[in-house]
Amino acid sequence: MSTEMKNPELFVFEYGGTARSGKGTIVSWLSEVHPEIATEETGADYRAVTLGLLRQGELELGMDEAHVAMVLKRIAIGSLTDLVARRKELEADEGSDALYGADVNQTVHLVSPLESVRKAVKGGFAKRVERVRDDDEHSVLLVDGRNLGPVVERVEGTTLVMRTFVTCLAFEAARRECLRAGLTPGTDEWHDAFGVNMDAIVARNNADQDRVLDPVVADANAIDYWKNESLINATTHLYGQFLFEDDRTE
Predict the structure, then answer these.
(1) Is-contact 169 19, C-beta < 8 A?
(2) Could you read off the pLDDT of 90-132 as tens digits, one per residue?
(3) Is pLDDT of 205 > 90?
(4) How remote is the C-alpha of 231 from its chain's centroid?
(5) Distance between CA atoms of 101 and 106, rounded to whole angstroms?
(6) pTM of the shown model
(7) Which alpha helices (DSSP H) does 56-114 contain, by range?
(8) CA dist 188 to 191, 192, 195, 200, 214, Å?
(9) By the 8 A CB rule, do 142 and 148 touch?
(10) Structural contact between residues 37 and 141, judged by C-beta atoms closer than 8 angstroms
(11) Are 250 and 244 in contact, with CB atoms under 8 Å apart?
């Protein structure tokens, strides 16, 4: 591995996985512990495209899957990429909460699987990786996203150190959503929300893993390192080497 990593400009760790599995939490925690490490994610990009198209009147609430696909088919990828690039402006104009508003939540799952949207988001993501590579401030980038490793590998001056696929039971993911919402276990509000969250997470995971483009599944050669002590040690060594100044205990 040391031969492959000779003098790269940017080391990249990717975290993908199922809905609400904790991949974002892992990246957030590591970035808090090491603020000098850069982070990237694309989930908000799909929401930015959706919000932008809603605000432009290209999309309307209540459109079905076929209608949304038809609308997106006539929009140039360059225009979609522009919406990705203007994500921060959208957040500034509308507030970051707008990306997670009810209108976006109802529509983004119809927008994000489409090929043109995914190409636009990946194109914008690659440009942001290049900016991190060139900023002379970061040597490590943590990526919260799905199937972005192949995109990173096409960016010169980067080395993809490790891809991690994070997953958890839908039951646990639904429980986390309830806790995140500040609900109290055992209450009627908890039970009602738990059922809704559980159904939504199961439906999303099924749709994500079954889609033709960028299915959300572990790589065919993925290693379940929890079942092999030597692989756990190797993983810990990598984290210690790149993120904790060779301190594998940390």
Answers:
(1) no
(2) 888 888 778 877 788 788 888 988 999 999 999 888 888 998 9
(3) no
(4) 25
(5) 9
(6) 0.75
(7) 65-73, 77-85, 87-94, 102-111
(8) 5, 6, 11, 19, 38
(9) no
(10) yes
(11) yes
What does the block give as tokens for 242? 């790149």
204, two tokens: 């999303």
Residue-level pLDDT at 51: 93
Identify the residue whose tokens are 């090491």.
34
